[in-house]
Amino acid sequence: MQKIEVKSYLEILDFSDLDPQEQALVEKAKSISQAAYAPYSSFRVGAAVLLENGNMLQCSNQENVSFPAGVCAEQLVLGYAGANYPQSAPIMMAVVAQRAGEDQWAVVSPCGICRQTINEVENRFNQAIKMLFLRADGKIYRIDGVENLLPLKFNDLKG
Q1: Which residues contact 155 (CB under 8 A, 6 or more apart)?
Q2: Cβ(78)–Cβ(86) under 8 Å?
Q3: In Å, what is the CA distance from 89 to each residue of 9, 76, 110, 112, 116?
Q4: pTM for the structure as a whole
Q5: Mean pLDDT of the chain
């Protein structure tokens, strides 16, 4: 038997430790989360992406009674970026979540499908995406690249 150790690296920062661009991205994600359509889960997620061309895009999750037909905020914003700015790589993404009726933010990180979506975008542009996730205590997880979230990612249909 062979054992392999897999390590992930992330930083935990105060909001004030973020640079102005990172702060703006988190604020955009917070703002758009309020536009989520989440009548079934009551879990509103906002995602904002900074593209290398300087554009900031944002989307919120959109649920559907025909579960799992809803779409996560991360998938929506990366899909929108790919369709409308196909030559501009996403370089940073912020994700936040809040339960309806609560003032506090919820801890969130992308689901498995979203992690694989992020992986696909990173592969497409051959570039890691810096990710910022707001925690319930107001601190931020900062992660450089999806490999730190998805170490055994699926990359090859033919391998």
Answers
A1: 119, 123
A2: no
A3: 22, 15, 19, 21, 16
A4: 0.92
A5: 94
